[in-house]
Amino acid sequence: MLDFCIIGSGISGSTIAHYLKKKYSINVHDKARGVGGRSSFKRYKGKIGFDHGLQYLSPRSKEFKSFTNKLIKKKVLKHWRGNHEFLNRKVKRDKKHIKLIGVKGNNDISKFLLKNINCNFQSELSEIKRQKDCWYLRFKDNKHIYSKNLILSIPFPQAKKLSSKFVKTKLFKNKVIMNSSLTVLLMTNKTGNKSSSFFTNDKVLGWVSNENSKKRFNYNKDLWVLQSTFEYGKKHTDSYRDKKKFYTNVLINKFKKLTKIKIRKTYFTHIHGWKYSSNSTPLKTQSYWDKTIGLGICGDWFGGPRLENGWLSAKDLYNKIK
Ligand SMILES: Cc1cc2nc3c(=O)[nH]c(=O)nc-3n(C[C@H](O)[C@H](O)[C@H](O)COP(=O)(O)OP(=O)(O)OC[C@H]3O[C@@H](n4cnc5c(N)ncnc54)[C@H](O)[C@@H]3O)c2cc1C
């Protein structure tokens, strides 16, 4: 029987998997088609693609800085330089924050951490039961497995739904409100624009990234990621599926208006709603571990809405298990 079954292949799941595999038999299940969770990379063709969720890392803690420095040396991460601009703000350039990105895509860290680990994609956990000394785990496709221990590295509402009856502390009594947002991936003619990103104080469009400026590929078209504000996402993420074209155009038109970039032709668009984009209030604990039943929970939501907090949460959980 497996020692640990880990649910989620985002930064939290891949970090805990990386450490546990040194000593235990493990496997990872994710409901998505590939690695990375909210740090996924949407491939268009070959190396060309878009960072779908997370845009960049700005390490703050000593521990995470040292981890990311190692990944820079291993050519998993690199700096994203260039003009990061503020639109409609007094500050015009963002020079302050270091911006790190994956060399090929922002799911590179998870890919690196999950090397040689058995990962099962399109595998959504739908029910958990405690049976004698182990977990019975049933997946949406009706497959089931048994595991001695279970780690959930999934957003708060999903973790609560699956495991609240097994959690003895007040963890799920916390009010963790997760913001929603909409993302549009856009491919246009070459515009000649030299900015790497735009941060706005608009009510609809919050952030634009110029994917070509990440220097992962040379392409004869421009690739953009447009992210809505949380305010706009809150109102429209539940309903965008019925009017995808409409919401795509709202964000594209805002982009054109705010940046004044001349777009002659659009070659590709894709819209995605992030229901559980991020939470803003950190909890008092960094992870949850109950060794009597072998249940662990980690995720960025313990610490706040950044990838670094997912990594710190998983490390904290590993230290508890150890
Ligand atoms: C649009 C957007 C922009 C962002 N920008 C930044 C940024 O610039 N900088 C930054 O630091 N952070 C950013 N973030 C936040 C960052 O992406 C997250 O903090 C981080 O990716 C969270 O990692 P995680 O492993 O905790 O969770 P996730 O990445 O959400 O991983 C959870 C995984 O669990 C899977 N899963 C869920 N339920 C089940 C189930 N029942 N069965 C199987 N699998 C399941 C999901 O498919 C997912 O892959 C952004 C997030 C979004 C959405």
Write the layout of secondary structure elements.
Blueprint: E1 2-7, H1 11-20, E2 26-29, E3 41-45, E4 48-51, H2 62-73, E5 77-79, E6 83-86, E7 100-102, H3 108-113, E8 119-120, E9 125-131, E10 134-139, E11 144-152, H4 156-163, E12 178-188, E13 195-199, E14 205-210, E15 222-228, H5 230-236, H6 244-259, E16 266-279, E17 288-290, E18 295-297, H7 307-321
Parallel strand pairs: 1-2, 1-11, 2-8, 6-13, 11-18
Antiparallel strand pairs: 3-4, 5-7, 9-10, 10-11, 12-15, 12-16, 13-14, 14-15, 17-18
Helix pairs in contact: 1-7
The structure holds flavin-adenine dinucleotide (FAD).
Multimeric organization? single chain
User: How confident overall, as mean pLDDT?
Assistant: 95
CATH architecture classification name of the largest domain: 3-Layer(bba) Sandwich
Number of strands: 18
What's the main sheet like?
Answer: 8 strands, mixed
* Gyration radius, in Å: 20 Å
CATH topology of the largest domain: FAD/NAD(P)-binding domain
| Percent strand | 25-35%
Helix content: 10-25%
User: Helix/strand-derived class?
Assistant: alpha/beta
Bound ions, cofactors and other small molecules, one mention each: flavin-adenine dinucleotide
**Helix-strand topology string:** EHEEEHEEEHEEEEHEEEEHHEEEH
What is the CATH top level name of the largest domain? Alpha Beta
The tally of helices reads: 7
Q: Write down the domain tally.
A: 2
- How far apart are the termini? 20 Å
CATH superfamily of the largest domain: FAD/NAD(P)-binding domain
| Molecular shape | globular
Question: In words, what does this structure look like?
Answer:
The protein has 322 residues and is an alpha/beta fold. It folds into two domains: 2-55 and 109-175 and 283-321, 3-Layer(bba) Sandwich (FAD/NAD(P)-binding domain); 178-279, Polyamine Oxidase, Chain A, domain 2. The chain has seven helices and 18 strands. The protein has helices spanning 11-20, 62-73, 108-113, 156-163, 230-236, 244-259, 307-321, and strands at 2-7, 26-29, 41-45, 48-51, 77-79, 83-86, 100-102, 119-120, 125-131, 134-139, 144-152, 178-188, 195-199, 205-210, 222-228, 266-279, 288-290, 295-297. The strands form four sheets. Strands 1, 2, 8, 9, 10, 11, 17 and 18 form an eight-stranded mixed beta sheet that branches. Helix 1 packs parallel to helix 7 (307-321). The two termini are 20 Å apart. The mean pLDDT is 95. The structure holds flavin-adenine dinucleotide. Flavin-adenine dinucleotide binds at residues 7-13, 29-32, 37-39, 53-57, 124-125, 153-155, 158, 181, 183, 227, 274, 277-278, 299-300, 305-308, 310.
